[in-house]
Amino acid sequence: MIQLACHNYDEDFDLSFSMLVSAIESVAQIAMPEPEKHELHNVWKKSTKNDPDLKALFQYYCDLRVHDKRLKERFASFVFKYFPTEKWWDLYDDGILMHGFNSPYNEATELSRKHSEFRPNHFTPEQLKGIVKETYNYRSKFVHRGESTPHRNPKLGSWQRFFEELRNVGEYGSFSTKRYLISRELMLEIAIKSISNYLAEQSESS
């Protein structure tokens, strides 16, 4: 799936990005257990035994629970467990690959990044968790509704490797809110590294 995402990158960004998220989700469903029953599940079941209305309500709850597999939470938990944010700095630099490690280009680019790049350490753990969960939502909306991801600059400049800042324009042209979107390059890195780390763990334990 990751390979297909790479093949479709230039032709269809939304499909490519969503396939990276789906690749992680498919493994996360295996790696991260489903949520356990509520601690009062059996108590509720017993208390509804002689009341048809409560029994029907409890059954409705059970039916909802079957469909609520907490996929978004399990997706985020998988990402942070198998590719922690402190590892996100290992994102490869295509500029270095193109120009070489000792090129003056790298120094100028790093200076630009220092003043403008949104990096993982600019966000709190809770903010990063929210960004990752929203990323899952973008994939779901694309798959189930055909909605494009909100990225406006799929191919970011070399000075912005990790996130894209999306500003919503308010009244009188003022910027009212901001959102930060995981870049396609970072999403690719997260997919490859998290799945690889999980498989390596399974290999060691077998």
The counted number of beta strands is: 2
CA(first)-CA(last) distance: 25 Å
- Class by alpha and beta content: mainly alpha
Radius of gyration: 21 Å
Shape: globular
* Biggest sheet features: 2 strands, antiparallel
Count of the separate structural domains? 1
Strand content: 5-15%
Strand order of the largest sheet: 1-2
Order of helices and strands: HHHHHHHHEEH
Mean pLDDT: 80
Helical segment count: 9
Q: Into which percent range does the helicity of residues fall?
A: 55-70%
Low-confidence stretches: 96-101
Detailed description of the structure:
This protein is mainly alpha-helical and 206 residues long. The chain has one domain. 59% of the residues lie in helices and 7% in strands. The protein is built from nine helices and two strands. The chain has helices at residues 2-7, 13-31, 41-47, 52-67, 71-82, 94-99, 104-116, 125-145, 184-205, and strands at residues 163-169, 175-182. Strands 1-2 form a two-stranded antiparallel sheet. Strand 1 and strand 2 (175-182) form a beta hairpin. It is globular and about 65 Å long. Residues 96-101 have low confidence and may be disordered.
Q: What's the SSE blueprint?
A:
Layout: H1 2-7, H2 13-31, H3 41-47, H4 52-67, H5 71-82, H6 94-99, H7 104-116, H8 125-145, E1 163-169, E2 175-182, H9 184-205
Antiparallel strand pairs: 1-2
